[in-house]
Design brief:
Length: 470
């Protein structure tokens, strides 16, 4: 059974059936007991009146047996006519049940009962407990005897049996109707309950078949509604991830195709003797191989960061030394593009625990990013200071800035601020994505602010290790 609806319906059927059977059995049992008690009480009162009249007339219980037999012939036709008369004068027809009462005298001695009466024999002494449930036979206020009930069901006549049969039939019909109503209403509720589950299952199959971004309808705000919301968010994220993957693949293919095409063209021309080698050609080929190397190394670094397998050589370092070395290393490159790289450091910068090589890589990526987008005569500022327990490193430029639409995408893979220049500089478009991963992997965070025409500011924050004073 693969359908959850069928499983729930089966559970509902079993529970409803067991409940209906138990209810019918319980009500039938209670009804029979109450009806038998009612019959027994009515017979006890009627028989007591007859016995009292008999005693008033004869002042003895000598003929009480005949009153019993005559009473039950009238109340239950066939009481003594259907069985064979026994030789025992204290027994009724052998095939008939005894009356549900015995007669005892004023001392509680059984006068009429016989062997068919459960628990009582003629001459037995009725206990005080049994007398509590007995009916006193009083003559002029004097108790002359007791009509004692015995623990057997009273004899039911045909009308009484018909009544109980009608009650039983009504219970069976009502139980079946109740079961049917429960199944119908339960089926409707089950269909309503499982509809969102079926839609989620259908949506899962659609996504598995490649229909990324598929959205299911949210019908409620309960747990299933929250599950549907999470499903829709997941589907949207998968669609975005798939789109980025395809874009990344296309970008990598493009980045690889361009230098490979150039290298292929040069090597083919030289091998066919159409072009002679020269320092300029070798320099151009070398630049393309450098671009390929940048791309491959960036992809490798990003893959290691994604799988958390990139090793960090953490040390207690002086950030001022790393920043100064970085400014010295990139000043010639900035000058070659007619750009100015300025270093501004706060005195007594706190020491931090970082990988010095990866910190240099972070700063290099940010400075390279600024160099790639700045026009001639632009400025880059490399700053650092301490702020509320953090070391703050800032790389700021006065370039064209980034639009509000592009700013949230700045750390996406293969996002290029200026594609026309980044390829020439050997950029893979992965630099900022790698920078963000490197910062976060060392416990820091990176922020970016920018306005069109006002430049861009990248701010990196690393927690400062607390020092204890003794």
């Amino acid at each position: 059974m693969r359908s959850i609806s069928l499983k729930i319906i089966l559970v509902l059927v079993v529970v409803s059936l067991v409940g209906a059977l138990f209810t019918a059995f319980y009500i039938q049992s209670r009804t029979r007991n109450a009806f038998d008690t009612y019959i027994k009480n009515q017979e006890q009162l009627a028989l007591a009146d007859l016995l009292t009249e008999h005693y008033q007339e004869y002042a003895s219980w000598g003929n009480a047996k005949q009153i019993f037999l005559e009473f039950y012939r009238i109340r239950s036709p066939g009481f003594s006519g259907g069985g064979t008369q026994s030789k025992n004068p204290n027994r009724q027809g052998d095939n008939q049940p005894p009356p549900p009462f015995v007669l005892a005298d004023q001392e509680g001695i059984v006068l009429f009962g016989g062997t068919n009466h459960i628990g009582f024999q003629i001459g037995d002494q009725i206990t005080a407990k049994d007398l509590q449930n007995s009916l006193a036979l009083e003559i002029d206020g004097v108790v002359e005897g007791w009509l004692v009930p015995v623990p057997i069901s009273p004899n039911r006549n045909s009308m009484q049996q018909t009544f109980l049969g009608t009650v039983q039939q009504g219970l069976i019909i009502s139980s079946l109707v109740t079961l049917l109503i429960a199944l119908v209403l339960g089926g409707i509720l089950i269909i309503s309950f499982t509809r969102p589950i079926r839609k989620l299952a259908d949506g899962t199959e659609r996504i598995a078949s490649g229909e990324l971004g598929y959205q299911v309808e949210i019908e409620s705000g309960d747990e299933l509604g929250r599950l549907a919301t999470s499903f829709n968010n997941m589907s949207t994220d998968l669609q975005k991830a798939d789109r980025l993957r395809k874009q990344m693949t296309a970008d990598i293919a493009h980045d690889l195709r361009s230098p490979l095409s150039i290298l292929h063209g040069y090597t083919e021309a030289m091998s066919e003797g159409k072009m002679a080698g020269s320092p300029e050609i070798y320099q151009a080929m070398h630049q393309q191989t450098r671009h390929l190397n940048y791309l491959i190394e960036d992809l490798r670094t990003l893959s290691l960061l994604d799988s958390e397998e990139l090793n960090f050589q953490l040390e207690d370092i002086d950030p001022a030394r790393i920043l100064t070395q970085t400014q010295t290393a990139f000043t010639p490159l900035a000058a070659s593009e007619d750009l100015t790289l300025t270093l501004e450091l706060e005195e007594n910068l706190p020491r931090v625990t970082l990988d010095p090589g990866r910190l240099t890589q972070i700063l290099g990526n940010l400075i390279n990013n600024a160099i790639n987008i700045l026009p001639t005569g632009g400025n880059i500022w490399l700053k650092a200071w301490q702020e509320v327990g953090d070391l703050v490193i800032e790389v700021k430029d006065d370039g064209p800035g980034i639009s509000k639409q592009d700013l949230p995408l700045i750390f996406n893979r293969h996002y290029k601020i200026d594609p026309s220049r980044s390829q020439d500089q050997g950029s893979s478009g992965l630099g900022l994505a790698i920078t963000k991963k490197l910062v976060e992997a060392q416990g820091g965070k990176i922020e970016v602010t920018s306005e069109l025409g006002q430049g861009t500011t990248f701010r990196v924050l690393f927690p400062v290790k607390e020092t204890k004073s003794f």
